[in-house]
């Protein structure tokens, strides 16, 4: 099992930036494909971004492409989500997730381990 703990959320105005972090423990981060998802009140959990085990190949939702960047530092057991030019529609709880198999990275069912989430609120 791997335990995931997100941090870095907060309240900010539209146009601002945040960097979320997800620290893994229990197993090496390099064992996992990592993803970020988000869930706004009343909505389903939505794919944001994913990155393969070694880094160097990332996937993004169309709604965040060009604004968000996922990265990982396996030596630090940490995955990051750099979020720039934030919009009110980005307001949600953000979750990191780990998958140890090569399923559809855009589907939440691919991921077996989840963090507790961190709130991001963007005001207009």
List keywords for this structure.
four-stranded antiparallel beta sheet; seven-stranded mixed beta sheet; mainly beta; 124 residues; 0% helix
- SSE run: EEEEEEEEEEE
Q: How helix-rich are the residues, as a percent range?
A: under 10%
Low-confidence stretches: none
The fraction of residues assigned to DSSP E strands is over 45%
Please give the alpha-carbon distance between the first and last residues.
40 Å
Radius of gyration: 13 Å
Helix segment tally: 0
Number of DSSP strand runs: 11
Structural class: mainly beta
Q: What is the residue-averaged pLDDT?
A: 97
Reported for the largest beta sheet, the result is: 7 strands, mixed
**Principal-axes shape call:** globular
Question: Summed up, what is this model?
Answer:
The protein is built from no helices and eleven strands. It has 124 residues and is mostly beta strands. The model has no long low-confidence stretch (mean pLDDT 97).
